[in-house]
Amino acid sequence: MPNLAPYRHGSSLLGQMEATAVPERAVAIWHLGQESVVLKGAGITLYVDPYLTDSVNADGTTPRKFAPPLQPREATNADYVFITHDHGDHLDPSTLRDMAAASPQARFICPVPCVSQIVKAGIEPGRVQGVNAGQTVELGALTAVPVASKHEDYEQDEKGNHAFLGYVFKLNGVTVYHAGDTIGFRALADELKPLGVEVAMMPINGRDFARFGQGLIGNMDFREAIELGRSIGADLLVPLHYDMFETNTENPAYFVDYIHDRYPRQKFKLFVPGERMLYLSERD
After folding, report:
1. Do 93 and 121 contact (CB within 8 A), yes or no?
2. Residue 273 falls within a domain, yes or no?
3. Which domain holds residue 156?
4. Predicted confidence (pLDDT) per residue in 82-111, tens digit
5. Which residues partner with 111 through β-bridges?
6. What integer pLDDT is reported at residue 214 of this predicted model?
7. What is the mean pLDDT of the segment spanning 40-52?
8. Residue 280 belongs to a domain
């Protein structure tokens, strides 16, 4: 049995986040598993899709392959929490409720159709901001641009608000794209390319007939993620959404092999849950 303990966890992880000094034109990145990431820069700490509960099935088993690197009530450092869509491993009411209590300063940003679910989790409406694709959100030193995603197809409410979003973050002189859940498609590449993405964080768990029949809606696979990242000129590619659940994983070695074969000069990073990376922009 492999050791699936997070690289760093609990108070050790939180202490590292708080102690990490981020220079200009840089961001610190922590991966917490699945698509949960933390970004820090310019005095701002933001979480994307935090899924930090140890969910238990009806038979007493847990679907997670490893414990959360951080418990929600340990996340006292959140300034902003971004949610990409309403699936339980991205919008987890238990995680958000406890994070809201632990980080009373935190604001929660999500697709407009998700606002009611976050409020139902017990978070005050004044702390929740619904956004739609194409809207630029200015949050002090942080700018976030929501980008419409297709989890197979676009999903919109009756007012045309997209239910699935990715975000392009401009923080401390660095531009980071977090795709949320999406397949690759030309309109997405065309929208991202002018935004100058340097770090592209994308799912690679793919889709297939068997999983679709089980209600597991698809994402891009490792090829699509790499080709999308290449098409938008990203400097660093980061695969996500391949490590959490036995029934919906992917071997990241395929991602590595494809880059090695096709694009051997392309930079990439595979994270261990709980691991930190400091990315410094090299763009003029």
Report:
1. yes
2. no
3. 21-268
4. 999 998 889 999 999 999 999 999 999 999
5. 131
6. 59
7. 97
8. no
Residue 135 has pLDDT above 60, yes or no: yes
Residue 197 lies in a domain: yes
Supply 232's token pair.
């938008």
Q: Is residue 161 part of a domain?
A: yes
Strand partners, 199: 176, 236
Angle at 283 between CA 259 and CA 276, to 5 degrees: 60
How big is the chain, counted in residues? Answer: 284
Chain position carrying tokens 């700490």: 45
Bridge partners (DSSP) listed for residue 82? 48, 109
CATH number at residue 188: 3.60.15.10
203 contact partners, CB below 8 Å, separation of at least 6: 35, 179, 180, 181, 182, 219, 220, 225, 239, 240, 241, 242
Number of domains present in the structure of the chain:
1
Q: Which two tokens stand for residue 138?
A: 């200015």
Segment 202-259, tens digit of pLDDT: 999 876 555 555 556 679 999 999 999 999 999 999 999 998 887 777 899 999 999 9
pTM higher than 0.90? yes
d(Cα 182, Cα 152) in Å, to the nearest integer?
A: 7
